[in-house]
TrEMBL record:
Domain SIS: 29-166
Gene3D superfamilies per record: Glucose-6-phosphate isomerase like protein, domain 1
Name by which UniProt lists this protein: SIS domain-containing protein
CDD domains: SIS_GlmS_GlmD_1, SIS_GlmS_GlmD_2
Entry keyword Repeat: yes
Keywords: Repeat
Source organism phylogeny: Bacteria, Bacillati, Actinomycetota, Actinomycetes, Micrococcales
Amino acid sequence: MTDSVPGAFMRAELFSQPETWARAADMRDEQKLLPAAGTRVAVVGCGTSWFIAQSYAALRETSGLGITDAYAASEAFLDRDYDAVVALTRSGTTSEVLELAEQIKGRIPVIGVIGDPTSPLVDLVDEAVLMPFADEQSVVQTRFATTALTLFRASLGLDGDVARSITDASAVLAATDDAALAEAEQYTFLGRNWTIGLAHEAALKMRESSQSWTESYPSMDYRHGPIAIAAPGRITWQFGVAPEGLADQVQATGGRFVQHDVDPLADLVRLHRVALERAVAKGLDPDLPRNLTRSVVLDA
């Protein structure tokens, strides 16, 4: 494999996800470094990491383990008596995350979940959960984000869900019947509770990799205006269980409603492959998407 093949890194990385998820699920010592039950937690990240933070926060709260808020690192309100901050970043070099960690150092314990063990964030945090095996060469993230969420799910005791996600992801990657999903004019992604973060992440992945028109919303809010965009040739993609009647309402517009009976994280893997194939078909290289770099590092 060489980087002269468009999307070669993204393809290899997205197909490795069942393996990296299984490895994250076995990181029991590292999972113990994450906030204990009953603590009040803020989870921060940028871009993809922010959306994964949203999913983790929803899962942690609904599991009854404590108040958990998710913030874009540039917009975090950390004066609310948090017991800990979880900072999620693949590169460990994102400017906003580094600045935030420096600002609260010594005041609020920071737990970093980081892909690059040589990054400057490692020395700033109080505890570092390192996942170099999930780091990536492609600019467009796939496996680091989903592997981090698998680590979070396992840490919350959701072992059955994690096991199903690995099995379902393997089946999704072996399937050959998703080509038509790459041919829509427009995509809207929907989720509920923890899958809202997945919907936002799916929309970002499709935009980054293939320069496509995408939107994302909480499923119940979709009918409060955004459904106006549904039409023939467009896809509304639900992650997880849809609200009753939503599929019929979308189909009545002439649009296509997409929902798969798999673990929602495995369905995100399906979206990764659809995004890759759509990008390559358009002559784009998702390993080097337009206007993007692996990490956003702002000038001082």
